[in-house]
Structure formats: structure tokens, C-alpha cells
Design goal:
By secondary structure, this protein is mainly alpha-helical. It is built from 10 helices and no strands.
């Protein structure tokens, strides 16, 4: 009890307990210095951890509007095709390449960040990275001629990041998998994704049978690591993200309803008339010839 009283008083620099003798005084001073050091480290590292977390979650939240919840690679490509925004994909791939490199450095240096949950559980950062990698692998496999140059760096940096995080968590994955190694993802899953893209109007440069070999050659580099991370963190179910211990089936992300403004009929009142403006007093949209 006396030792606990002395150590607590010294470590937290309270000073209500004082020992006798030179050697005990030295121990007390060492304990006081270590206590101040722990507090200083906490104050110094908290902004660093928060800054890394904030950088990580910025792109994760942005991805929700591009691919829905939970994220799914084919849906990311399909949505950009539906709105005629495929020219944005090179920029997206480039930003996620830099994001993956940042994650590889920060989350292996500060392992605690791996366990920091995303704001929306179904939009967890490992699921988001997996979706972007799948989208890039699909893009490059189905359209090798028109796929942007930013696709390959993303895949390379992305699967190295997946392996680094998996190794940090003690998950054993191959550092040099063969293109024909077994996958959890099946050919039927791939064909379903291809049909999903076709329904959105995506044009293909390769036939699905030939594209499948190239896609699985890319995915084999990160699938085991991605599934291991998702299972270790017990993330919510998501398509193509592997089995979980928690119950529930993975579902496609919900797509927002498509709505467009329409010109009112002649019998309908305009907003100005509905507000009380006299009919016929407004300037016409087209002057009579």
C-alpha cells in the first residue's frame, strides 16, 4: 500500500507522499518525469491521429454519393456511366492512389487507427478501398484500350496497402500470388457485375470470358487481404467482401431515384401565377415573330 501511494503521488506529480533517503528520491523523480512524458506524448499524438483519421474519412464519405452504401465496385462504374461522368474516373483513381499510400503509412505506424470506425459502418474504409480496387480492375479488364493510365498505379498501390494492413493485423496472405490462384469470387459473380454494367449502358472492348481471366489476375492480389481485414474488424456485410461472423446478407447499394424537371402543361399554373401574379403580365420566353 505504501509503495502504491508513493508511485501514484510521483507518477501524477501530486507530491503528497515523500520518501526518505537519496535512492527513493531518485526513483520518485524518475517516476514524475515519466508521468509528464506520458501526458506530453498523449497531447502530441492526438492531433496526429485525428488528422490521419480525417484525411481517411474525407474520400470515404465522398464515395458514398458515387457508389452508394455499402460500396460496390460495379455500381461505382455503372453510376458514372448513367450520368455521363466517366471522364471523372481518372481523377478518382488518382486521388485513391494517394489515399491508399497515406493509409499504408499512417495505419501501420499508428495501428490504433485501423480500429477507428468510420462514421457510417456500412461505408467502412476497407470496404471503400475494396470497391474502388474492384472498379479499377473491372475497368482495366473490360476496356484495356480506353482505361485511364491512372488505373494501374491505383491497383498496384492499393493491393500493397491491403497486404500491409493485413500483415499489421497478423493476417497471413501471400506476397506473390499466382494469377490462377483460387478466388472466393466466382465467375457467376463476375458475370452478374458485367450484366449490371451492360444495363447501365457500359460499352465493352473485351468479351466477358476473356475479361474474367484478367480480372481474376488482378483481384487475386488483394482479395485474401481484403476479406481478412473485413472479417477481423467484423464489418457489415457488403458484396464481394467475403464472409462475416455477424448475421445478414450483403445487398446491392440502393440507387437514388432518377428525377428530371419538366415543362409545365398549358393548363398548369406557373410558379409566378401560383404566387399570385396576374396571368399575361410576365415577359414571354419567346417573342412572337
Amino acid at each position: 500500500m505504501r509503495a502504491l501511494r508513493l508511485s501514484g503521488s510521483s507518477l501524477f506529480t501530486l507530491g503528497f507522499a515523500t520518501p526518505a533517503g537519496a535512492e527513493p528520491y531518485g526513483i520518485v523523480f524518475a517516476a514524475a518525469i515519466s508521468g509528464l512524458g506520458v501526458i506530453a506524448l498523449m497531447i502530441g499524438y492526438m492531433p496526429t491521429l485525428y488528422a490521419a483519421y480525417n484525411r481517411r474519412e474525407t474520400l470515404v464519405i465522398m464515395l458514398e454519393s458515387l457508389s452508394g452504401q455499402p460500396p460496390w465496385g460495379p455500381e461505382l462504374l455503372a453510376r458514372q456511366q448513367l450520368i455521363g461522368n466517366t471522364s471523372y474516373l481518372p481523377r478518382l483513381y488518382e486521388r485513391w492512389t494517394e489515399w491508399a499510400a497515406d493509409i499504408s503509412e499512417s495505419h501501420t505506424t499508428y495501428r490504433t487507427l485501423i480500429y477507428f470506425r468510420s462514421r457510417y459502418p456500412s461505408q467502412a474504409w476497407p470496404l471503400s478501398l475494396l470497391a474502388v480496387l474492384d472498379a479499377a480492375a473491372l475497368h482495366l479488364s473490360l476496356n484495356p484500350e480506353s482505361a485511364p493510365a491512372e488505373t494501374r498505379p491505383l491497383l498496384r498501390v492499393g493491393y500493397i496497402t491491403m497486404r500491409s494492413i493485413a500483415a499489421t493485423l497478423g493476417i497471413e496472405v501471400s506476397d506473390d500470388p499466382r494469377p490462377d490462384d483460387a478466388l472466393v469470387l466466382t465467375r457467376a459473380d463476375f458475370d452478374e457485375a458485367v450484366q449490371h454494367l451492360a444495363d447501365a449502358g457500359w460499352t465493352f472492348e473485351r468479351k466477358p470470358g476473356e475479361a474474367w481471366m484478367h480480372f481474376r489476375g488482378w483481384r487475386v492480389n488483394y482479395e485474401a487481404a481484403a476479406h481478412g481485414i473485413a472479417a477481423h474488424l467484423d464489418l457489415p456485410p457488403a458484396l464481394w467482401s467475403g464472409p462475416r461472423s455477424r448475421r445478414g446478407l450483403a445487398a446491392r447499394p440502393k440507387r437514388p431515384a432518377h428525377r428530371e424537371p419538366r415543362v409545365p402543361d398549358a393548363t398548369e399554373s406557373t410558379p409566378e401565377q401560383a404566387a399570385g401574379s396576374p396571368a399575361g403580365t410576365d415577359t414571354p420566353l419567346h417573342m412572337p415573330g
